[in-house]
């Protein structure tokens, strides 16, 4: 099956490939690796590349995807309406592109504007900012009208925060997507149902659990890809547990981001279209849900827009 034809239609008429390539890497990974891995991902057929200002590798990713497909993310210290367009323009400059296909708000938790990506006080606590997300959204709508992005969406929003945007007086464009942590241990079934009912595509990050330890990851959680149920289903289909976890999302109508800088695994991830899980497999994987978050963003607790206090 040709992965390039595996696309989902967005509520604004544009299309998004079902399988995306994630470009986040920890600081110790050389930026040149982001360039090589992204180039290779495009060569083997990826047509949806997820980047973010926070990852600080936009220039390398941009080099690889010039003339291909890119999307970008508005970081939390630029949620004030007057900072939205300059932040997008800066990302476009880094990517050396005239526009992105999709631009999303990284998180509803706004941080103090400034040069620091992660502003902290003397005690190491995040310095929050207060922003009306409806105003941030209006600024994104203007970026779409200006042709700087084809589509606009959100990330890490709960259903109440989505409702706030959807019920906003004078709403011009609905979010086309909500990018959230989603995997068999956190299958987001209620949020997925809510998004589908409003014609919003759910995009899954951390679809394989957390493979990298960082200050943002809850390291006490079990390793998803070692789950016996996933491993048994993988063995039955002669596939890897990672491919089963990706395929699970594709069959639920979720757009899924696969992140790897390993060429063998990048190529392997494209095989997600080569097999199908049975209804029994899907039910068994559904049964693994335990509402476990790898990226619980505890540093954001206390912010009025902290999204994960809600059930979904």
TrEMBL record:
Entry similarity comment: Belongs to the aldo/keto reductase family.
Species annotation: Bos mutus
Positions annotated to bind substrate: 106
Lineage of the organism: Eukaryota, Metazoa, Chordata, Craniata, Vertebrata
GO molecular function term, any single one: oxidoreductase activity
Keywords for the protein's UniProt record, in alphabetical order: NADP, Oxidoreductase
Active site residues of this protein: 55 (proton donor)
InterPro entries assigned: AKR (IPR020471), AKR1C (IPR044482), Aldo/ket_reductase_CS (IPR018170), NAD(P)_OxRdtase_dom_sf (IPR036812), NADP_OxRdtase_dom (IPR023210)
Residues in NADP-dependent oxidoreductase domain copies: 19-289
SUPFAM superfamilies linked: NAD(P)-linked oxidoreductase (SSF51430)
Name the UniProt record assigns to this protein: NADP-dependent oxidoreductase domain-containing protein
């Amino acid at each position: 099956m040709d992965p390039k034809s595996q696309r989902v239609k967005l509520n604004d008429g544009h299309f998004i490939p079902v399988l995306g390539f994630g470009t986040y890497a920890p600081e110790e990974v050389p930026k040149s690796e982001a360039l090589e891995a992204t180039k290779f991902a495009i060569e083997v057929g990826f047509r949806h590349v997820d980047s973010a200002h926070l990852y600080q590798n936009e220039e390398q990713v941009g080099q690889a995807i010039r003339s291909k497909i890119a999307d970008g993310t508005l970081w939390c210290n630029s949620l004030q309406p007057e900072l939205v367009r300059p932040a997008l323009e800066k990302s476009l400059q880094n990517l050396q592109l005239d526009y992105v296909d999709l631009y999303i708000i990284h998180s509803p938790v706004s941080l103090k504007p400034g040069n620091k990506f992660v502003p902290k006080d003397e005690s190491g606590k995040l310095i929050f900012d207060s922003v009306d997300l409806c105003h941030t959204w209006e600024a994104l709508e203007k970026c779409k009208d200006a042709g700087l992005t084809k589509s606009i969406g959100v990330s890490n929003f709960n259903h109440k925060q989505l409702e706030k945007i959807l019920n906003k007086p004078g709403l011009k464009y609905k979010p086309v997507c909500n990018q959230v942590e989603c995997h068999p241990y956190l299958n987001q079934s209620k949020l997925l149902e809510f998004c589908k009912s409003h014609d919003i595509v759910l995009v899954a990050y951390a679809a394989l659990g957390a493979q990298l330890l960082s200050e943002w990851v809850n390291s006490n959680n079990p390793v998803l890809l070692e789950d016996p149920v996933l491993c048994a289903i993988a063995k039955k289909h002669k596939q890897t547990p990672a491919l089963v976890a990706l395929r699970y999302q594709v069959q639920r109508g979720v757009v899924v981001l696969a992140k790897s800088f390993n060429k063998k695994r990048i190529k392997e991830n494209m095989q997600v279209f080569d097999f199908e899980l049975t209804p029994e497999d899907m039910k068994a994987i559904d049964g693994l849900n335990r509402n476990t978050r790898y990226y619980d963003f505890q540093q954001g607790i206390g912010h009025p827009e902290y999204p994960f206090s809600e059930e979904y």
